[in-house]
Design the sequence.
């Protein structure tokens, strides 16, 4: 996975070049306009053997492009990774959707309050976790516990939302919910979650969104993917000992490919394999 920030005028030529270069190979591209600028952000998911050629294409076709950190996604993606890489439907334009002011760069930070951070949670299984989350949402948000549990279990029935590396993103669209909710959960003991690497889960971001808020849902998933692919973020998160520190980390996080003021020169800021 590779992030690229470049002038909007270069996005189409680059995409066309990649179509030619990567013909017959599994790959995808996602584009997000950077509002208030004439630049866009591309997220490229390419086969490992195509990365070098893609970097050369970027340097040739978009000399002012800024390349971000390179992350490796598992060779056999889980359903959860496929959700993040290949959305099954385009974002909905619905009045209830919060996506007008919620972008991948700030979505989680906007939603994650200190009372949404659950550290040292005493649960031993996915079922007991969901039961606890149902009770929590009933007490704090007035959502029926059974509705929350059913929403999370319905998504989980399609395939585990564990991404590997001890991370899981249980999520669901909840009937009757008016605004998106995000929780960060750190169990006292890692929880088995049918992860692709077989490891139990120690970090969970729980996302609950209204039924019609497809765009918000995708933005939140993209935010989770970007942060937790960054092993530096994961290490800093594990060092947080209270809810305040967790929230400050989410607010202060800078994406590895975040631009700086002014017009960036062509450069590779940092390349490394996520752990």
Sequence:
């Amino acid at each position: 996975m590779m992030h690229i920030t470049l002038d909007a005028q270069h996005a189409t030529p680059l995409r066309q070049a990649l179509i030619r270069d990567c013909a017959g190979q599994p790959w995808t591209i996602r584009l997000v306009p950077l509002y208030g600028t004439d630049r866009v952000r591309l997220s490229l998911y390419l086969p490992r053997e195509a990365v070098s050629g893609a970097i050369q294409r970027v340097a040739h076709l978009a000399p002012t492009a800024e390349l971000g950190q390179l992350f490796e996604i598992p060779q056999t993606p889980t359903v959860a990774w496929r959700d993040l890489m290949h959305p099954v439907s385009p974002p909905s334009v619905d009045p209830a959707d919060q996506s007008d002011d919620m972008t991948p760069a700030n979505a989680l930070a906007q939603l994650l309050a200190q009372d949404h951070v659950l550290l040292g949670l005493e649960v031993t299984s996915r079922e007991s976790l969901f039961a606890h989350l149902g009770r929590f949402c009933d007490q704090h948000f007035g959502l029926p516990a059974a509705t929350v549990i059913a929403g999370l279990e319905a998504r989980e029935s399609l395939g585990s939302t564990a991404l590997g590396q001890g991370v899981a993103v249980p999520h669901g669209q909840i009937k009757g919910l008016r605004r998106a909710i995000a929780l960060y959960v750190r169990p006292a003991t890692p929880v088995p979650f049918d992860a692709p690497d077989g490891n139990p889960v120690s970090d969970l971001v729980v996302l609950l969104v209204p039924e019609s808020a497809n765009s918000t849902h995708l933005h939140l998933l993209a935010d989770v993917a970007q942060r937790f692919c960054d092993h530096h973020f994961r290490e800093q998160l594990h060092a947080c000992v209270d809810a305040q520190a967790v929230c400050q980390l989410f607010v202060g996080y800078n994406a590895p490919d975040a631009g700086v003021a002014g017009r960036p020169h062509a450069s590779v800021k940092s390349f490394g394999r996520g752990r």
